[in-house]
Design a protein that fits this description.
Chain lengths: ~230, ~230
């Protein structure tokens, strides 16, 4: 369902070219569970932003469910995202003036769900990530790991068929990390596609396939024999 | 050099009391190397903010170098921080409109260092964390792990005698994490005090003492026999 063909992404800072991704080609099928790893600065978040339709490549093609999305307008990308994709950002990107439950309900506001259903769905997601007692807190009234969990809850509230999570356990202790990985496992078993960026080998072992980036290119792509 | 006596910190959200720290007493001597661990929401960042003079306790006393700092004014706390303490924030807290080198030089602006010295010192620190080629980038032009390393460089540019680092390797791959831990090791060997929050057992093993929090209280406090 995901096919990248010769994807490149180059940033330009004061006339200096920064090739964040160089000719990346990749296929991911429905219901795969992929871990994306690699050194700091190797292009993982850049690749995730392209996969998540948050950014467009400098060159190359991206086919999502056989549809070429490489050159959609911002509005068209927003519609694809809301329908298909749940994204957990490396830096959370929560709305600072909204409470946890309002933040989690936001994707449901965009797709027209009525107030009663979206509040109950948001409550359910926050309980699933262990934040039942933090529903009305704003982001600056929560710990780092609590904010990370609100970002996770928001990404999955819409039951997306593709979940993209960029370092979802970076701020979580082992016990809470395992609870989050169990949630992703459940989502995967329900037939969905899960792609996570992690720098922790323990977390990568939950995935069925491990892709490693280095300097903007795919360095290795292997099956995990014992997920 | 750090003595906490019956420190409590309670937040109030819409009339609900949230006891983030309950009666924490703790002594840390000069040149100790401490890892602070515990579940998400257990009070680690709250404790670090008090240790770092970024926040004052609701009750209890904090003696820093034998001076009671529990009730200093914001200005007085700022002076103590700038002189003695280097703080790496869990969410980086970089100035969005400044480049990496400007961000790292900021503590030196506050203590009156001349422009030439602070630019060369900031360059030195950024090279030490592997960011020589990202000096002029702004935070939104960098990867998560690069931002984390700018935050680390800024915390140590002033050669503080106490380094407080809240999840400094949360966004870093293993190789880069080891480079950062080597920097903290070097700072420790120079006679300074290092206190880091981490959720990764591997990282905690660099420290000489491991303190675990649970629900705002100290759960265990042990020496690490093999740092
Ligand atoms: N400004 C605030 N207002 C209200 N509650 C807060 C505030 N900051 C923190 N809290 C609450 O205090 C508790 C301790 O928070 P703290 O940030 O110290 O946890 P932590 O151990 O650093 O967690 P993590 O590992 O997730 O970063 C949490 O339950 C959090 O919700
Ligand atoms: N908006 C931008 N403008 C300029 N350069 C950028 C921008 N975003 C990222 N970069 C650069 O592109 C490269 C890849 O960044 P990316 O965020 O994809 O790395 P990453 O693998 O996610 O790293 P990390 O593990 O540190 O999060 C980095 O060298 C970074 O400095
Ligand atoms: Mg990243
Ligand atoms: Mg914290």
């Amino acid at each position: 369902i995901i096919r990248l063909e010769n994807i490149s992404k180059t940033y330009i800072i004061e006339k200096v070219l920064i090739p964040a991704l160089k000719n990346v080609s990749l296929s991911i099928h429905k219901n795969e569970y992929v871990a994306l790893m690699g050194p700091s600065g190797s292009g993982k978040s850049t690749l995730m932003n392209i996969l998540g339709c948050l950014d467009t490549p400098t060159s190359g093609k991206y086919f999502l469910n056989d549809k070429d999305v490489s050159h959609l307008s911002d509005n068209e990308l927003a519609i694809v995202r809301n329908k298909e994709i749940g994204f957990v950002f490396q830096t959370f990107n929560l709305m600072p003036r909204m409470s946890a439950v309002e933040n989690v309900a936001l994707p449901l506001v965009y797709n027209g769900t009525n107030r009663k259903s979206r509040t109950s769905k948001a409550h359910e997601m926050l309980s699933a990530v262990g934040l039942a007692d933090r529903m009305d807190h704003k982001p600056n009234e929560m710990s780092g790991g609590q904010k990370q969990r609100v970002a996770i809850a928001r990404a999955i509230v819409n039951s997306p068929s593709i979940v993209l999570a960029d370092e979802p356990t970076g701020n979580l202790d082992s016990k809470t990390s395992i609870e989050i990985m169990n949630i992703f496992d459940k989502i995967h078993k329900q037939g969905n596609t899960v792609i996570l960026v992690t720098h922790e080998e323990d977390i990568s072992h939950f995935a069925h396939r491990i892709i490693r980036l280095r300097d903007g290119e795919i360095y290795s792509d292997e099956v995990n024999p014992n997920p």
